[in-house]
Design a protein that fits this description.
The complex is a heterodimer of chains A (503) and B (377). Chain A is built from 23 helices and 2 strands. Chain A is an all-alpha fold. In chain A, strands 1-2 form a two-stranded antiparallel sheet. The radius of gyration of chain A is 27 Å and the shape is elongated. Chain B contains 11 helices and no strands. Classes of the chains: A mainly alpha (503), B mainly alpha (377). At the A-B interface, helix 2, helix 3 and helix 4 of A face helix 2, helix 3, helix 5 and helix 11 of B.
Chain lengths: 503, 377
């Protein structure tokens, strides 16, 4: 409302996800990989293994090229992207945690300098100093996670901060510790995966030694993930724990993806890194890389999804509207609140659909597109303007993950009219049951299912006349139900469908 | 006319404005020094690779730059993060709005930085590979692309930092291209401002060459570096007087007036900002005729660096003057988080000490190695 909306044509959240997954994948490697470098170097010295030392030298160059450039710059990229997609929330985060970020910047600075000194001064520095620089790198890299983890977890579980507004209350929030250790474990595992990547360039005898060594890192990183995830999940907000009960297919898929990727990575590490390191080859390493991205990607997705309908839990909604603003916008209307919309819903001469489209960008665009990801044309098929306007009154009931609509009756009517214009359709068929099924899809399926997990309706055997009668009093049955806006014929067809369908 | 200026964040500033501004200007000054050396340094490296057949020193300088530029790039980025952070705390509502309006080029900066960064590494690594001859042509092309990318990044920055000062232009841009495919073309001062800063970057990289020369042991190469650096600084600086005047003329009325007598501080800054580079040029020219020119050169370089510092403050004054009709950060509520500020200061000092430790170890080790190599010869 306060800011213009970047109208990308697809949800801005998707852009954040793309940049973020790339960044977290490399940045976690940047942390664990630091420890991997120093410990491998130390191992090479203590075993007097010049080949292993040669490997770690190569690995350090690869490490610096990947982390200092792509890792660091995509980190700045996330910051750019969230500022473009959620400026209100970004501003809030910056105001709450500017000194946290400033401290992270100090670690970032030391980290980058140490990475360059470590990677490019093998021949300049003596062994002891070189190892110390390696440790400086690792400590600074992990310390930057220690800081940023406080800010990321605060967004999901701000804890006591909501009452006190104090920095440390937000920073050391309920999910701080489990998240820190999960990320640390991921960092160790990714150090192992990337250790395998560079091992593939080494001659067979050395490769085998490195594969076994990197394999231990991978196994050590993966092993604690399950208990740590349970601890993490235990501290999730209660509202979002409910999302994991099975009602959201995307959550089920992400959980399955995380489990499969973790299992595959663990199995491959045990089989081809520890037991049969000779067999390890670039294809298996590529599968491990994909599995690593899969684990990180699904983990980040689940964390983000669990935060819905908020971007900062109980403070700012996912569409960048502050919770405290919703009531005032409902009272005064969007046109009087946001300077960025053209026209006004209250003005009968204004183009209502054009105005509605702007509201769509403003309030829905961060999560929904029209035709692509979470595309509304698909969801709004057959909706009439009145029905769409009514639905907007009950968004958090339709989906627990959706923020309430912020606007007055005129705004709802305009957005409703825009949504109804996306995919007008009249239910048709050869008999009442077929037509009724379509009426159900249009008017009921947003909240109910027949034979599904989501608020199932079982009216089999009920007199169709009685069902048709109920359609006139839906809001009396449950105030969260919008009135039925279909024709009488459609109502009768729906009643026939429901009376003949069962779970 | 109602301007669509977002209201500032309802949270109070987590530190007094003077502290935030000091940190903003200090870190931005350091960022600018590295950024200038990066932009100018890659341009110089490009010229050197083109002239490699006619000048042995050019080949050598390209090699020296190839070793330096990846680190310069790293520090340009790390030092750029801090001022952007402090800028967002104080002026976020302006910066976020203008960034969204030019969202596509603004986010493209990230991609361009990554490409340019890898380009610099390509250049750097090719210098140390054995098949030099083969890859020279490719190196020139890559360097040219890097210069182009860096110049484009600078142009997008100029667009955003002028657009954030012009809220009267925002609604038109938003309603014509809400997708973020915009630049701030209708800003009269855009082109002179951009050229002024890019020429300044070339000038500062000239000073960088002088400093490189001062650190050289070998007389002929040392002399050549100082000459080339002084020439680059003098030429671009003199040209920049003209471009600076153009920039001044294109500023909006009240802001321009402030710099030419309307505001004592702004006017004196402009005066000092014009005298300092003249002093720098004079010292660099005098150094040429001097038998032991080190003193003149050091004074010249110092005047040049002071010019950058004055320009950084002037740029901040310009921003505040342009925003004065709408906003003054001094009016924002402040609730300093002193405990965490103290922690930051302690860690910052510890960070600097760690940096000093590492760089000193490298410097000592490099010196020992060079001495050993000389003994062998």
């Amino acid at each position: 409302m306060n800011y213009p909306v970047w109208q990308l044509g697809f949800p801005g959240g998707l852009l954040i996800a793309a940049v973020a997954v790339l960044h977290v994948f490399i940045s976690h490697f940047a942390i664990g990989g630091g420890a991997y470098l120093v410990l491998t170097e130390r191992r090479a010295y203590s075993q007097n293994d010049s080949e292993l030392l040669g490997y770690v030298r190569h690995h350090s160059k690869f490490f610096a090229l990947l982390t200092v450039v792509l890792g660091a710059v995509t980190g700045v990229g996330i910051w750019f992207t969230i500022g473009l997609v959620s400026p209100e929330a970004t501003s809030s985060l910056i105001h709450t945690f500017v000194w946290g970020w400033a401290i992270e910047w100090v670690f970032f600075f030391v980290e980058i300098a140490a990475a360059l000194v470590y990677a490019y001064h093998w021949d300049t520095l003596d062994r002891q100093t070189h190892l110390i620089v390696g440790w400086i790198y690792f400590v600074a890299a992990w310390a930057s996670l220690v800081v940023i983890n406080g800010i990321i977890t605060y967004m999901l579980t701000p804890g006591r901060w909501l009452e006190t507004g104090k920095f440390w209350d937000g920073f050391f929030n309920p999910t701080y510790w489990p998240s820190l250790w999960i990320r640390t474990a991921m960092a160790v595992g990714l150090a192992g995966i990337f250790g395998l990547v560079t091992a593939m360039w080494e001659p067979p005898a050395l490769r085998e030694r490195v594969v076994r060594w990197a394999g231990w890192w991978l196994v050590l990183g993966i092993a604690p993930l399950l208990p740590l995830s349970r601890w993490y999940f235990h501290d999730f907000p209660s509202y979002s724990r409910a999302y994991f009960s099975g009602m959201y297919p995307q959550v089920r898929h992400a959980l399955l993806g995380a489990a499969v990727c973790t299992g595959v990575a663990l199995a491959l590490a045990l089989l081809f890194a520890l037991l049969r390191p000779k067999v390890m080859n670039p294809v298996i390493v590529a599968v491990l890389l994909v599995a690593g991205i899969g684990v990180m990607g699904s983990g980040e997705y689940l964390r983000e999804f669990s935060r819905y309908p908020y971007v900062i839990n109980s403070y700012i909604y996912a569409n960048d509207i502050r919770i405290g603003q919703v009531e005032s916008i409902a009272a005064s209307g969007v046109a009087r609140t946001s300077p960025w919309v053209e026209g006004s819903a209250a003005d009968p001469r204004a183009d209502q659909r054009h105005y509605g489209r702007q509201l769509f960008a403003l309030e829905c665009g961060s999560c929904h597109s029209v035709d692509g990801y979470r595309g509304m044309r698909k969801f709004a098929r057959g909706w009439d303007a009145k029905f769409a306007g009514e639905i907007l009154l009950h968004l958090p009931v339709v989906r627990e993950t959706m923020p309430p609509f912020a606007g007055d009756a005129h705004d709802r009517a305009a957005l409703g009219s825009y949504l109804a214009s996306l995919a007008p359709a009249i239910p048709s068929g050869t008999n009442d049951k077929e037509i009724g099924q379509q009426v159900f899809a249009i008017h009921c399926a947003m909240c109910h299912s027949v034979g599904g997990r989501r608020r199932p309706l079982d009216l089999k055997g009920t007199d169709p006349e009685a069902i048709a009668g109920m359609l006139g009093t839906l809001s009396d049955i449950n105030p969260n139900m919008p009135p039925f806006t279909g024709t009488d014929a459609e109502g009768r067809a729906l009643a026939v469908y429901l009376s003949n369908s069962s779970q | 006319m109602n301007l669509p200026i977002p209201y500032p964040d309802p949270m109070p500033l987590p530190a007094p404005v003077w502290l935030l501004r000091t940190l903003l200007l200090l870190t931005f000054f350091l960022h600018v020094l590295f950024m200038n050396c990066l932009l100018g340094g890659t341009a110089v490296a490009l010229v050197c690779t083109v002239r490699r057949k006619s000048s042995a020193f050019s080949v050598r300088l390209a090699g020296d730059l190839g070793r330096l530029l990846p680190s310069v790039f790293a520090f340009t980025i790390t030092l750029g993060v801090a001022p952007l952070l402090f800028l967002q705390v104080m002026y976020g509502q302006f910066l976020y709005a203008s960034s969204i309006l030019i969202g596509v080029p603004w986010l493209a900066i990230i991609g361009m930085v990554i490409l340019a960064y890898y380009g610099v590494y390509f250049f750097s690594m090719n210098l140390s590979t054995t098949n030099r001859h083969e890859k020279k042509g490719r190196t020139t092309v890559v360097l040219a692309l890097v210069v182009l990318l860096l110049a484009s990044i600078a142009f997008v920055y100029s667009n955003n930092f002028t657009l954030m000062l012009a809220p009267e232009r925002w609604l038109d841009l938003y309603h014509s291209h809400g997708s973020g495919w915009n630049l701030n073309w209708s800003e009269p001062s855009l082109v002179p401002r951009y050229l002024h800063f890019v020429l300044g970057a070339l000038a500062v990289s000239g000073l960088g060459l002088v400093v490189m020369g001062l650190r050289q042991q070998e007389d002929a190469y040392r002399q050549w570096l100082i000459e080339q650096g002084s020439l680059l600084f003098t030429g671009t600086t003199l040209l920049n007087f003209g471009v600076g005047f153009w920039f001044l003329v294109k500023l909006t009325g009240p802001v321009r007036l402030a710099f030419v007598g309307g505001n004592a501080f702004a006017t004196s800054l402009l005066g000092v900002g014009m005298l300092l580079p003249l002093a720098a040029v004079a010292h660099l020219i005098m150094a040429k005729a001097h038998k032991s020119p080190k003193r003149q050169l050091v004074v010249g370089v110092s005047c040049g660096l002071l010019t950058v510092a004055v320009m950084v403050v002037m740029r901040d004054v310009l921003r505040n003057l342009a925003l004065a009709p709408y906003f003054n950060p001094n009016q924002l509520p402040v609730a300093p988080q002193w405990g965490i500020i103290l922690l930051f200061v302690v860690l910052f000092i510890a960070g600097l000490a760690t940096l000093y430790y590492m760089l000193r170890k490298v410097a000592i080790a490099t010196r020992v190695q060079a001495a050993a190599a000389q003994k062998l010869q």
